[in-house]
Amino acid sequence: MEFEPFKIVPVGYVRKDEELQETFIEILPEFMKAMDGLREGDWVKLVLWFHGSDTPERRGILKVHPYGNPENPLKGVFATRSPYRPNPIALYTVKIHRIEGNRLHIDWIDAMDETPVVDIKIFVERYDCPKDVPIEERELHISGGRMIGEVNVIPRKSEHLDELEEVSPEEYDAVILEIGPKTTTLTAKELKELIETLVGIYRNLPVEIRDKLGELEC
User: Fold this and answer.
1) Does the keyword Oxidoreductase apply (predicted)?
2) Alpha-carbon distance 142 to 164, whole Å?
3) Which of 84, 163, 201, 210 has the lowest tally of Cβ within 10 angstroms?
4) How far does CA 168 lie from the centroid of its chain?
5) What is the C-alpha separation between 110 and 84, in angstroms, rounded?
6) Maximum CA pair distance of the chain?
7) CA–CA separation, 125 and 182 (whole Å)
8) Could you report the per-residue pLDDT of 139-169, keeping only the tens digit for each?
9) CA 84 to chain centre
């Protein structure tokens, strides 16, 4: 079987200042617009290309001793975090401590200086730390989700369920809320209570503010 090559370009590089003991990601100028929305304190996923392992010999290593310790039994590289793999891609979860121009300052990582960065993705608990969530991904109305400030509201699809009459509002999970990287689920009853609470807060805003915002559309 022949494989078509993929084209991956670096969006930046890992930089290490040993004198200052600092590690940061330097984003290339042509990709700086992609930084819009990142904030200090955000957790992100770094996708790196371990260029030092990008040789035919190292790409051909399919079993390793985990952590490089020969006393550990051999395992397939897919069951390890070894840099030796068919495609030398590395993943890190890091916190952005400081943003200065095109630099994202992060904690120390074991990647070498000048390691190419091929992508950066915001950390989302629902995807990156999966756990049992009452609403399955396929049941979510993703395109109907709304970002309001730092809150992502993702409703459940409204298709009719044959057994819906047997489900109480306390049991029916209606919406997922993502606040930053954190995820929580609200039942229909909790959603109603939240709406009523927010409406009450809105009506108690100073009248000058409400006049500028207009009436609630509900």
Assistant:
1) no
2) 21
3) 163
4) 33
5) 15
6) 72
7) 6
8) 888 888 888 888 889 999 876 555 556 778 8
9) 25
Judge contact between 177 and 186, C-beta under 8 A.
Answer: yes
d(CA 96, CA 182): 17
Question: Rounded to an integer, what distance in angstroms lies between the CA atom of residue 136 and that of residue 115?
Answer: 37
pLDDT tens track for 180-207: 778 889 999 999 999 999 999 998 999 9
Three-state secondary-structure class, residue 205: coil
CB-based contacts of 212: which residues, under 8 Å, 6+ apart?
none
Residue 49 CA to residue 88 CA, distance in Å, equals 6
The amino acid sitting at 8 is: I
**In the chain, where the domains are located:** 12-123, 127-213
